[in-house]
Hints:
The structure is a homodimer.
Chain A: H1 5-21, H2 27-33, H3 40-52, E1 56-57, E2 66-67, H4 69-79, H5 87-97, H6 104-119, E3 122-126, E4 135-144, E5 147-154, E6 159-165, H7 172-186, H8 191-196, H9 208-229, E7 233-236, H10 250-260, H11 263-270, E8 277-281, E9 291-300, E10 304-313, H12 318-337, H13 344-348
Antiparallel strand pairs in A: 1-2, 3-7, 3-10, 4-5, 5-6, 8-9, 9-10
Helix pairs in contact in A: 1-3, 1-4, 2-3
The structure holds a DNA duplex (30 and 30 nucleotides).
Amino acid sequence: MDLSERQLQILQAIINDYVENAEPVGSRSIAKKYDLGVSPATIRNEMSDLEEMGYLTHPHTSAGRVPSDKAYRLYVNTLMKKKNLSAKEKKMINERLDASRDEFDRTIRHAAELLSEITNLASFAMTPATNDETISFIRLMPVDERTLILMIVGESGNVTNTTLRINCPCTQEQLELLSKNMTVQYKGRTLDDALKSDIIEDVGTDIEAMGQLRGNVMPSFMKTLEDMLNVNLYMEGMTNIFNLPEYSSIDRARDFMELFARKDWFTQKMLARDDGVVVTIGEENDSLKDCTLITATYHVDGKLVGKIGVIGPTRMKYGEITSIMEYLTNNLSETFKLTDGSERKEDEE
Amino acid sequence: MDLSERQLQILQAIINDYVENAEPVGSRSIAKKYDLGVSPATIRNEMSDLEEMGYLTHPHTSAGRVPSDKAYRLYVNTLMKKKNLSAKEKKMINERLDASRDEFDRTIRHAAELLSEITNLASFAMTPATNDETISFIRLMPVDERTLILMIVGESGNVTNTTLRINCPCTQEQLELLSKNMTVQYKGRTLDDALKSDIIEDVGTDIEAMGQLRGNVMPSFMKTLEDMLNVNLYMEGMTNIFNLPEYSSIDRARDFMELFARKDWFTQKMLARDDGVVVTIGEENDSLKDCTLITATYHVDGKLVGKIGVIGPTRMKYGEITSIMEYLTNNLSETFKLTDGSERKEDEE
DNA sequence: TGTTAGCACTCACATGGTTAGAGTGCTAAT
DNA sequence: ATTAGCACTCTAACCATGTGAGTGCTAACA
């Protein structure tokens, strides 16, 4: 059943008011603040209907109405107006973002910080997933007689290295040979793929010393691959939520914090392969039944993909926040798209 | 003025009781639980004296006594018995610590996690400071025509790398030459030292292309040096403090969280050049007037240095916690001392 | 028939008074 | 010097009451 124009107006008014003040909103205050041309009594009747349809709830008889998840969902899907960021806001974001293609980690962390500052919510951001990254080359370098550096380089410039110790001395030549062998073997394969295959004996281990060296190196190689696959998750602004009335009780705050400390939960959330801004409201989340999670995807060369997100009570400024996140991720994607030098940023300033 | 034997006993009893129960302790309960052979009235008199001397306070007239910072200080300096860890506890720590010389970051993060789990407090841990690390070599490697990897390797096996873009193509030979030049220039110098000196034109820039390349690389080089200097700070177990009665008020909890979110504050705390286990109680801290901070130092080759710490209310199990931290840091230092292969851990298990 | 005024009713919350209990501090007896 | 006894203090819990915001219903109205 569809809602009448007036019902929509009233619902919107209730949502606006509740998002603003975090307190159950009564018919009288709606009638006063929003000029709907009807009396509180009429609004009461409509409210009653809206409640029956599941858009509003009632903490107790003599309290005002509170929007339900269903109401927010309707709001986000149809009622919400995206906020156009002002030039000043855009400028602020551009300046603060300080994005650089070469430093995913720093950029992403800054994005999370910025996001939580602007929204006054808790935020998190994930560095690009590298499942599809392909290996470009592998190199082994000596540090001292028994210590060497193993370095894996991906096609898009991802680099990870480990220092490892070996139990037998080896020569520079052996290291170079093994580097070459391994590069031949793994070049062009994705990290995922490389990690799965445990073809240790594939390549000719003609000399015994070489076999031994390889045996020393392989475990570290696998561990380094794993490192390279691991995304970093940055979480910022968790103390912001203390300022929200919904978390003025210690138990609620604790619950939130405990969830927020569970990085793995977020990581899992982030791995969903959706695109753009996604809003998950209240019960739509499995945990977090009273929180809304908004994520937005950014792109790296259209190939790798990462996310930023905010989390807060279902009562949040959806229009504003989704707009900010959209702008922010577009900005990130733009920065991460360039392959012809890193000059763009300087040009703009 | 010195305290009498009996006063010390009473003070110790009060501290024990308060640390255990977090509630002001009265004369009667002391007399009952601890067999001091005197009546509550006598204990009351002594308490009164102890309060006059500043070891105890009184939330209000009809409440029991609470130890002051001064009392805890006395306790830590003279009364406290270090707890001998049981074989089981040691084994647990050894197993869980999972220390490896090659992976400072992971090891240190695990140490922080472990520490907060054992103590039920918030913990933090700092990766080794690398101010004194000396540069071993510098290498530049091509990824594609305009992208290259800059790698700085320290004498003790520290490696940091950056991917950077250059605005002019260059040859493999040029990269190798520049690597060599830079290595000659910086080898043996500490990171601190290298960062300070901006001798950009020192080395022969005979060919113009080389000068240009160098100009492209140097800013990234400096930034990478900075990266290499930066210690990582891991913080764990902050939600533990929600379980403590002193943080059952939302305001106290918020204050704590806000401080805990200020990594810079901890970093600064950590940079103090003290050694071993250091206990800083209440007012002795500049912020955190009602918290105790315990830090402990671990060593890497006796040269580089890092710290782990716990933070909680002044009411904490000093004896137990300091012992655990001592054991833990010894364990870390031991792992980080070895230079003759990484076999030790396996030997022990 | 939709809208509205009016009014009884509900419920959370604040206020204030009372009580119980834990603990002190003092005094006088041991 | 120690202790029993007792008056005194103060918090926390409990209860009773009042207040006000807000609803839901009914009857009047346009």
